TrEMBL record:
Pfam families xrefs: Nup88
Keywords: mRNA transport, Nuclear pore complex, Nucleus, Protein transport, Translocation, Transport
Biological processes annotated in GO: mRNA export from nucleus; protein import into nucleus; ribosomal large subunit export from nucleus; ribosomal small subunit export from nucleus
Origin species: Polypedilum vanderplanki (Sleeping chironomid midge)
Annotated Gene Ontology cellular component terms: nuclear pore
Molecular function terms, GO-annotated: structural constituent of nuclear pore
Subcellular location: Nucleus, Nuclear pore complex
Lineage: Eukaryota, Metazoa, Ecdysozoa, Arthropoda, Hexapoda
Principal location class: nucleus
Protein's recorded name: Nuclear pore complex protein Nup88
Length: 701
């Protein structure tokens, strides 16, 4: 059983007394910004706020934001700016901007939890004439977080900055006098708009400009509050395509920046393919999903949703406008991918004539760009695109295919149903918000009930229906292993058993309980859905199991044949291995014999060589060195002998010539020194003579 209040919003006193004072036309009286939950109190005419995250663990503090000027019109919508600095409350007859107080304190609430805070208000539009407020949205690129776009029923789009009217742009034909019902009856009244990702160009008047692919790049100005002239010059180069929807289903694009005086209005954009089903005759709302390329969702009061891609036009087509706008060709076309029909309440006996018609309100999911939510008088739906993931794979170049499979259907989940019978009292969704950290959604009903669900548990991931692409038996015979690797069989069975019929949570108006007949009819319808849908899936699973058994039997027989062939190959390989082993041994023996013969040949050849060996060469070189040394020593000895003989003769002649002279006597010490010197010389001469004698003996030997 699914828990219907995961975040305990029903216990918050902020919603007390809601059903007693709720106007019939109010549908967006509650919203959420980060961790703050806002709700308009019709009894006290103030905006109440509470920190929903802090309320999960302790008693929350409810703050009342009192407006300095009480609105004189019925409030139907509450919205907070992108930076949280401003908020506005609007109705069909007026709109008031609220300057939000500063936040501080432990819980991040306003003025540290002050119970009542008086806020400055700016009365932007409060008109008593026939012109009504059709839609109002904050501009995502406002440098002061205060630029507000307001669409009126007289086909004018106005831009305000802190309550000051900056520009008035014409987005459709002018009404004749004050007769707005005439334009509304023809479907020429603009009923909704949304802002697409930024378009960057040096010249905004250029008809062919390219989209900036990321809307967050231009939203960085929300955190950069610069008011210099340089910043204003940069903003003149940025334009935002404003997608406008008329009641007859025509879509127009107004390309304008914050400082654009005369914008570029284009349209109606061409629907491709041009089929009647692609045009909504009773359109009610529009939303832009910032995918790549941009996805446009158009809703009709009958519950039909059109999913289209906004692509650049290759061939510019001329379009018609009145004299107050610029005449330019279309830069884009709308390529309708699919049309889906929502179930507005449970149908009795599957009769489509019992369907109700009511306005549809669209909200994009800031966490997942492949998903958005749609709520209405009969409940809440969650829609997940099937083609966005294929586009991402193609743009990221993750596939080598030249074509994109755009036939993947979107997943529709009926999350909450507030109407089960045609004559039951309407229990409409009057407030909706998307929670983050943790991820979830909440819905406020006109009966005062509050539903909060976790999107992690309720919103299941997109699962491709594999039953539409069942491979044949012949295909399995050739590619069964590849198929098993791509899609495991258990996942395939789970995909077949997965029901495409969502079971919504019932939250009916308890003031008038259903009759026994209505309850019985509801039970019978549920049983019939079970028979038609679930049992058929079980039959399909049974057929798949039979097919799987046949395939596995075929694979088993094939594997047996392959095993027999493997055994035969094994025996043949063993025989070849034995032969190769014998041949290997013979080769080794022959190799050893050849090595021995080579060694013998090498030894014999070295012995029979005529030249001397290297050792003999070295010995001969050594002898030559010794001979040169001996020759040198012999010459030295001869020189010494000659000198000795010359000295002896000189000494004898000197002694004879000096016999008559007086003999000179030397001191004893000098005489001993000379004798020692002469004796040393004699020993050296004798040693040299001995060495010469030895060398001569060696040479003679």
């Amino acid at each position: 059983m699914t828990e219907i209040d995961v975040f305990k919003f029903s216990q918050l006193k902020i919603f007390d007394g809601l059903k007693d004072n709720l106007p019939e036309e109010s549908r967006e009286i509650a919203t959420v910004y980060e961790d703050l939950l806002f709700a308009w109190n019709f009894k006290e005419n103030n905006l109440q706020v509470v920190n929903w995250r802090a309320a999960q663990n302790k008693e929350p503090k409810i703050q009342k934001l009192i407006l300095s000027a009480i609105p004189n019109f019925t409030i139907s919508k509450v919205a907070i700016s992108y930076g949280g600095s401003f908020a506005f409350v609007s109705g069909s007859k007026g709109i008031i901007m609220i300057e939000m107080p500063t936040r501080w304190g432990s819980d991040g609430i306003y003025q540290d939890g002050k119970a009542q805070i008086t806020c400055k208000t700016i009365n932007i539009y409060e008109h008593s004439l026939q012109a009504e407020v059709m839609q109002a949205r904050w501009h995502p690129n406002s440098p002061t977080d205060s630029h507000l776009l307001v669409l009126l029923s007289d086909n004018s789009l106005r831009i305000y900055d802190e309550g000051t009217l900056k520009h008035t742009w014409r987005v459709g034909p002018l009404p004749t006098g004050n007769n707005l019902s005439y334009l509304k009856g023809l479907g020429d009244t603009a009923i909704d708009f949304d802002i697409a990702p930024a378009q960057v160009s040096n010249d905004l008047q250029s008809p062919n400009s390219t989209f900036a692919l990321d809307i967050n790049e231009s939203n960085k100005s929300l955190t950069t509050h610069s008011f210099s002239n340089k910043r204003n010059q940069e903003q003149k180069k940025v334009a935002w395509p404003i997608v406008i929807l008329r009641g007859n289903g025509s879509v127009y694009v107004l390309t304008a920046g914050l400082n654009t005086e005369k914008p570029r209005l284009q349209g109606p954009l061409t629907m491709i393919p041009s089929q009647k089903d692609n045009y909504g005759d009773d359109s009610c709302s529009l939303i832009v999903i910032p995918t790549l390329p941009v996805t446009i969702v158009i809703a009709e009061n009958s519950g039909v949703l059109h999913h289209a891609l906004m692509l650049e036009n290759q061939m510019n087509q001329d379009t018609f406008f009145d004299e107050s706008t610029t005449l330019v060709p279309n830069d884009w076309n709308l390529y309708v991918i699919e049309n889906i029909e929502l179930e507005l309440g449970l149908q009795e006996n599957n009769n489509k004539s019992d369907l109700t018609t009511c306005p549809l309100y669209l909200h994009r999911d800031p966490i997942n760009e492949q998903r958005y939510f749609c709520y209405h008088d009969a409940g809440l739906h969650g829609i997940t695109f099937g083609f966005v993931q294929q586009l991402q794979k193609y743009t990221d170049d993750q596939t080598n295919e030249d074509e994109i499979n755009m036939n993947v259907p979107s997943r529709i989940e009926y999350i909450l149903s507030t109407k089960a019978f045609n004559n039951a009292k309407i229990n409409a969704v009057v407030g909706f918000g998307i929670l983050q950290l943790p991820s979830g959604v909440f819905a406020v009903l006109s009966s005062g009930q509050v539903i909060s669900l976790s999107t992690v548990k309720t919103m299941l991931p997109l699962v491709t229906d594999l039953s539409a692409h069942q491979p044949s038996l012949d295909y399995f015979k050739t590619n069964v292993q590849d198929q098993q690797l791509k899609v495991p069989f258990d996942q395939h069975i789970r995909a077949l058993l997965k029901s495409d019929v969502s079971q919504p949570i019932f939250q009916l108006d308890k003031s008038k309980p259903p009759s026994s007949q209505e309850t019985f009819q509801l039970l019978m319808n549920s049983i019939q859905i079970m028979r038609d849908k679930q049992f058929a899936r079980h039959d399909k699973v049974r057929q798949e199991l039979i097919k799987r058994i046949k395939i596995l039997s075929l694979m088993k027989n094939q594997q047996k044949d392959e095993i027999a062939l493997l055994f035969e190959s094994k025996e043949q390989i063993q025989e070849n291995a034995y032969k190769l082993a014998d041949m290997h041994e013979d080769i080794i023996d022959r190799q050893q014999l050849l090595q021995k013969r080579i060694q013998d040949i090498s030894r014999l050849s070295s012995l029979r060589l005529p030249a001397i060996s290297s050792n003999e060469k070295e010995f001969a070189d050594t002898i030559k060195k010794f001979k040169s040394c001996i020759d040198k020593l012999s010459q030295d000895v001869k020189q010494i002998k000659a000198k000795n003989e010359a000295q002896r003769k000189a000494l004898e002649s000197w002694s004879k010539s000096n016999d008559d002279f007086v003999k000179i006597s030397l001191p004893p010490k000098q005489e001993e020194t000379i004798k020692e010197f002469l004796s040393d010389m004699m020993r050296q001469i004798q040693g040299l003579k001995a060495d010469v004698q030895k060398i001569s003996n060696v040479i003679d030997f």
